[in-house]
Amino acid sequence: MKNEEVTLLENRLTEAVANAEAEREASRNFVSAVAHELRTPVAVIRGSLEALCDGIICEREQEKEYHRQMLNESIYLQRLVTDLLEFSRLQSKGFSIEREPVNVSDVVSDVCRSIRRIADEKGVSLERTENSPVYIVKGDYARLRQMLIVILDNAVKFTDKGGKVTVSEHTEDGKLYLTVADTGIGISEEELPLIFVKFHRTITGQNRNGTGLGLAIAKEIAERHGANITVDSKVGKGTTFTFCFSEQMTEEELAEFE
């Protein structure tokens, strides 16, 4: 019996050491990735400032262009820092989100209203299926809204003028399936497994200002709400994101909030 206990203890200790090393490696990789992301905008801002301070740039139009470039890079840095803080908070085990009854359909309606103006300005049709089901989860309304904003904003961003984005919901076997489908440029088969990896972003004209953290943040929020997120895409055909919520609140749980 003692030998079994010793073996069990050794296995747990080995597992703990392995987990600790994995966390340290993840931390090192994260710091390295952040440093890599910061290097380019900082270099651009410094180079532009040095050129202006040294009097190399004399023409007024050239000077304006350098100022615009520095402004764009500083805006990107601000967005990157904000996303980094958000992603770090969501990954922290000690960070808790609000927990109250939220009808997912209400969040979808809210986000569709917000994104519709952007879609209209781009000439993209945003459609939502009617008779959306009532499906109440215990969660954070603001976080769920943030999650869907990321997905819908991307859908519009990567869909050309005249294209369409469709949002639909249906329930099956006690689960809610929320789908965001677009007729956009699509994602290659090689890139598809990487889209939720932090700092990964497609280098295209539509995504030149992205930080590569939006989808990683959306995935973290989904997992915090017990939801699974999957994606299917074909280059030139479009992309479909599907959220599967499986933790609907019971009547007893809802009664506790009344």
Set out the fold topology.
Blueprint: H1 2-53, H2 60-91, E1 100-103, H3 104-122, E2 125-128, E3 136-139, H4 141-157, E4 164-172, E5 175-182, H5 214-224, E6 227-234, E7 238-245, H6 251-255
Parallel strand pairs: 2-4
Antiparallel strand pairs: 1-3, 4-5, 5-7, 6-7
Helix pairs in contact: 1-2, 2-5, 3-4, 4-5
Describe this structure in words.
By secondary structure, this protein is α+β, with helices and mostly antiparallel strands. It folds into two domains: 2-91, Helix Hairpins, CATH 1.10.287; 100-253, Heat Shock Protein 90 (2-Layer Sandwich). 53% of the residues lie in helices and 17% in strands. It has six helices and seven strands. The protein has helices at 2-53, 60-91, 104-122, 141-157, 214-224, 251-255, and strands at 100-103, 125-128, 136-139, 164-172, 175-182, 227-234, 238-245. A five-stranded mixed β-sheet has the order 2-4-5-7-6, with helices on one face. A hairpin with a 3-residue loop joins strand 6 (227-234) and strand 7. Helix 3 packs parallel to helix 4 (141-157). The longest helix has 52 residues, at 2-53. The protein is globular, with a radius of gyration of 23 Å.
